[in-house]
Design a protein that fits this description.
Blueprint lengths: L2 H4 L7 H7 L2 H36 L1 H7 L1
């Protein structure tokens, strides 16, 4: 793993990470973080759809045009 390409601001700590031997744990943590972010985006998408549906139901003009 090279921090120089993905995270240029953190090149100073690359040696510390290698020395501590936590490269695998860091990769796993990044994977878990990405998975949680994907779940959050999925749940937010459903919430947005529900809000849009409620807005259409509340507006009489849109309600007539949808039916």
């Amino acid at each position: 793993m090279s921090f120089k390409t993905r995270y240029p601001d953190f090149t100073a700590i690359e040696g510390h990470v290698r020395h501590a031997g936590v490269e695998r744990q860091l990769a796993i943590a990044q994977g878990i973080g990405a998975a949680l972010a994907a779940i959050g985006r999925f749940l937010a998408r459903d919430e947005d759809r529900e809000q849009e549906r409620l807005a259409v139901q509340a507006d009489a003009f849109l309600k007539r045009s949808v039916q």
